[in-house]
Specification:
By secondary structure, this protein is of the alpha+beta class. The chain folds into three domains: about 120 residues, Alpha-Beta Complex (Adenine-n6-DNA-methyltransferase TaqI, Chain A, domain 2); about 80 residues; about 120 residues, Adenine-n6-DNA-methyltransferase TaqI, Chain A, domain 2. It is built from eight helices and 18 strands. Strand 3 and strand 4 form a beta hairpin. It is globular.
Length: about 350
């Protein structure tokens, strides 16, 4: 089987997304509005049909998203349907493999240049083999997406149960009644060691370490950077100095996690040149007053959901690692689709 050398523009001509500001969107619609960082809203009409590959042009430069449905890519992205001789989902994997974020132009507003991208040389196999590559990698991504939907549904149910309990509260109390916020600890990259413990920054997991700052379960909150983001750490974590972590006052960690997600933490940033989450403001915020018994009952109800979600997140981590292992090997022709299928069958 021979692979053809061609240019990206010949197999994936790029179109510019169309502007659609938040005020112009009709959120009652079901059509996803797609920016370089992901889906940012909904609208009642689409500007292009699916399947389609969306490529981050500005902002989250080089991100690749594959959508089966009609959508509205906005003006921070390119999009492509490919050509008659290309499989659209295969193109999404090809673009991912090309690491296009490394081709950002030198300008005051960094972004990708369409002419430069379309001139990139690539090698592609015949259409049927493209479809086979897309199918084997898509099996992993479809399972990851399915797991995410289950996780999102579980989180929605947990939030609904918390809201139900909160409506029966006898009044309000400061959030500091339930917990204190402890500062994360500096851990430079050079000092991190490849271990079982996730290292959390304000934007999520940024590495691994051999020992935790707290044993699990626990809660981490973004203090600087992604201010107010809340993370559940089932097996313990090492939160670094851009975060807080929670020390409950006799209340379950799960209860505190659900409470923090309900609070409008991003609005509680300090008024300074370097914005950050204001610890005192958070602890003084009025929240529903619930007893330890109520909190314990709620935690018992949602604990199985959290356990299941943790299992699915671990599975997704493993599936993602397999996909990232197979992607360059398939795209470079170092392994065959049959070899990849055997590897996928071991995981799915």
């Amino acid at each position: 089987m021979s692979w053809m050398t061609t240019t990206l523009g010949a197999i994936a001509p790029l179109a510019y997304g169309r502007a659609l500001t938040a005020s112009q969107r009709d959120e009652t619609g079901s059509v996803p509005v797609v920016a370089s960082g992901g889906i940012v809203g909904r609208h009642t009409s689409a500007c292009t049909t699916g399947p389609v590959v969306v490529l981050g042009r500005k902002g989250s430069v080089g991100t690749v998203q594959y959508l089966e449905e009609d959508c509205w890519p906005i003006d921070t992205v390119f999009y492509t349907h490919g050509t008659e001789g290309t499989d659209t989902r295969f193109l999404s994997y090809l673009l991912t493999w090309l690491n296009l974020e490394t081709r950002v132009g030198d300008s005051a507003v960094p972004g990708l240049n369409r002419a430069d991208l379309e001139s990139v040389q690539v090698m592609v196999p015949p259409l049927q083999y493209q479809k086979s590559i897309a199918e084997v990698l898509g099996t992993l991504d479809d399972k990851i997406a399915s797991n995410r939907r289950v996780i999102e549904a579980s989180e929605s149910l947990s939030d609904a149960l918390f809201s139900f309990v909160a409506r029966a509260a006898s009044g309000t109390t400061p959030a500091g009644t339930y917990f204190d916020l402890a500062y994360g600890k500096a851990l430079p990259t050079i000092e991190r060691k490849d271990g079982p413990v996730p290292v959390y920054g304000s934007g999520g997991i940024v590495g691994r370490h051999e020992s935790p700052l707290f044993d699990g379960p626990g809660v981490v909150v973004g203090r600087k950077g992604s201010v107010g983001t809340v993370y559940w750490a089932e097996d313990g974590a090492f939160p670094i100095d851009t975060t807080f972590f929670i020390r409950p006052h006799g209340f379950p960690h799960i209860f505190v996690y659900l409470l923090l997600k309900r609070m409008r933490l991003p609005l509680m940033a300090a008024d300074s040149a370097v914005p950050g989450l204001n610890r005192i403001r958070v602890l003084q915020e009025s929240v529903p007053a619930l007893s330890q018994a109520d909190a314990q009952r709620l935690a018992a109800q949602v604990s199985p959901l959290f356990t299941k979600n943790h299992q699915l997140e671990q599975e997704n981590t493993a599936l993602t690692a397999v996909r990232d292992e197979l992607l360059p090997q398939l795209m470079s022709g170092r392994i065959t689709v049959k070899d990849a299928e055997k590897r996928v069958q071991e995981e799915v």
